[in-house]
C-alpha cells in the first residue's frame, strides 16, 4: 500500500505534479465525433465553439480496420485547431484491446499539450486506473507535458459498478465517471437492447379497484438506471470528482432524451454525452439551471445572510440545509454564465423580475 504522503507525488521522474483538486469546468455535453471521418473532421471548427467538451472517439463505433486512421486523424485535428475554451478529450480503446497502448503512446507524445482528459472504457477496478496513471506519467515526462492529463472512467460492467468507490479514489488524475448503459446492460444480462433510457416493460402498476377488479389499471414506467446513477454520483461526490450520464441512443426521440438527461441532472450529474448535434442543445438546456431556479436560489442566499438559522420566504422554511442547496445552484450558474453570455443575460433578467 502506498503511503498517503506519496499520493500527490509524480509517478515518473520529470512528470508534472498531480492535481490536488479537479478543476470544475463546464462540461454539460461531451460531444463525440469520429476523427477518422473526413466530413466530421471538417465540421470540428464549427462544432467546437458550440460544446463544452469535444471528444475524439477511438473505441466503439470505430471499425477495427479504421482504428489507426481515427488515431492519426485526432492528432492532425488537435494540431490544426484552436479549441479556445472548449476542452479536448479522447476515448481510447479498452485496456484489453490491441490498440489501447498505441493510443496512449501516440496521443500523449504527439498532442499531450492539447488533451485535457483521456476517457478509459470498461474500467473494472483501481488496478486499471493505476496502470493508466503510471503510463501517462512516463509519457508526460518523455513528451515534456507540463500539466497532468486527467482520466475519466466509464462504468460499463457489473464488476465496475461493484468497485465504483475504489475507482473514483484510485488516482489524483481521476476527473470523473460516466455511465455506459449499453455495455453495462450486456454485462448484467439485462433484457434490453436500448442504449440508455427507460423500457416500457420496467414498470409499476396501481392496485386493482376494490369496486371493479377488471377495470383498467394505470401503469408507470420506471428508470432502469436510477440505482446505478445514484451510486455513481455518491462515489464521485465522496472523492471530489464529477459524474456524467452517458449516451442516449435514440437520436430521434428528443423528448425521452431530455427526460433521461434531466433525471441524471437532478440526481447530481454535471453533464451527458451527445452523439448527434441535435443532442447538444438538449444537454445545454438540461444541465444549466433554469433562470427561475437560479433567481430563487439567490433570493434564499441573500435572505439567509451567513447561512445560519432559519427564515420563511414565500411560505417556505429555509435553513442551513436549503442554503447549501441554493449555493450549489448559484455557483453552477456563475460558472456557466462566465462561458455563456446568453445564459448570463437570462440569469440577470430573472433576478430583476
Compile the SSE list and pairings.
Layout: E1 29-33, H1 38-47, E2 53-57, H2 67-80, E3 87-91, H3 100-111, E4 117-120, H4 126-143, E5 150-155, H5 158-162, H6 164-168, E6 174-179, H7 181-188, E7 203-205, E8 219-221, H8 226-238, E9 242-245, H9 254-267, E10 271-274, H10 277-286, H11 291-304, E11 311-313, E12 316-318, H12 320-339, H13 341-352
Helix pairs in contact: 2-3, 3-4, 9-10, 11-12, 11-13, 12-13
Structure description:
This protein has 353 residues and is of the alpha/beta class. The chain contains 13 helices and twelve strands. It starts with 28 loop residues before the first strand and ends with a helix.
Short synopsis of the structure:
The protein has helices at 38-47, 67-80, 100-111, 126-143, 158-162, 164-168, 181-188, 226-238, 254-267, 277-286, 291-304, 320-339, 341-352, and strands spanning 29-33, 53-57, 87-91, 117-120, 150-155, 174-179, 203-205, 219-221, 242-245, 271-274, 311-313, 316-318.
Amino acid at each position: 500500500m502506498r503511503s498517503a504522503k506519496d499520493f500527490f507525488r509524480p509517478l515518473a521522474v520529470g512528470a508534472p505534479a498531480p492535481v490536488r483538486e479537479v478543476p470544475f469546468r463546464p462540461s454539460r455535453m461531451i460531444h463525440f465525433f469520429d476523427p477518422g471521418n473526413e466530413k466530421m473532421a471538417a465540421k470540428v471548427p464549427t462544432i467546437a465553439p458550440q460544446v463544452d467538451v469535444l471528444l475524439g472517439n477511438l473505441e466503439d463505433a470505430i471499425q477495427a480496420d479504421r482504428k489507426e486512421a481515427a488515431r492519426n486523424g485526432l492528432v492532425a485535428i488537435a494540431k490544426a485547431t484552436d479549441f479556445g475554451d472548449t476542452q479536448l478529450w479522447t476515448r481510447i480503446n479498452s485496456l484489453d484491446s490491441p490498440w489501447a497502448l498505441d493510443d496512449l503512446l501516440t496521443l500523449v507524445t504527439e498532442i499531450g499539450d492539447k488533451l485535457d482528459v483521456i476517457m478509459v472504457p470498461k474500467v473494472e477496478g483501481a488496478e486499471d486506473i493505476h496502470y493508466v496513471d503510471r503510463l501517462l506519467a512516463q509519457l508526460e515526462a518523455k513528451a515534456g507535458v507540463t500539466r497532468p492529463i486527467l482520466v475519466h472512467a466509464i462504468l460499463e460492467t457489473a464488476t465496475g459498478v461493484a468497485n465504483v468507490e475504489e475507482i473514483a479514489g484510485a488516482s489524483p488524475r481521476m476527473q470523473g465517471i460516466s455511465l455506459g448503459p449499453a455495455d453495462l446492460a450486456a454485462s448484467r444480462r439485462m433484457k434490453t437492447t436500448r442504449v440508455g433510457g427507460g423500457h416500457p416493460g420496467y414498470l409499476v402498476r396501481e392496485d386493482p379497484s376494490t369496486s371493479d377488479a377488471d377495470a383498467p389499471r394505470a401503469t408507470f414506467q420506471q428508470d432502469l438506471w436510477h440505482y446505478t446513477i445514484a451510486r455513481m454520483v455518491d462515489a464521485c461526490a465522496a472523492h471530489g470528482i464529477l459524474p456524467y450520464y452517458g449516451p442516449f441512443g435514440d437520436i430521434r426521440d428528443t423528448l425521452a432524451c431530455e427526460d433521461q438527461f434531466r433525471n441524471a441532472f437532478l440526481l447530481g450529474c454535471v453533464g451527458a454525452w451527445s452523439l448527434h448535434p441535435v443532442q447538444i442543445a438538449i444537454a445545454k438546456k438540461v444541465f444549466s439551471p433554469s433562470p427561475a431556479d437560479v433567481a430563487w436560489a439567490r433570493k434564499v442566499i441573500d435572505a439567509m445572510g451567513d447561512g445560519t438559522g432559519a427564515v420563511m420566504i414565500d411560505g417556505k422554511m429555509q435553513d442551513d440545509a436549503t442554503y447549501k442547496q441554493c449555493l450549489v445552484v448559484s455557483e453552477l450558474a456563475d460558472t456557466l454564465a462566465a462561458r455563456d453570455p446568453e445564459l448570463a443575460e437570462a440569469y440577470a433578467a430573472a433576478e430583476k423580475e
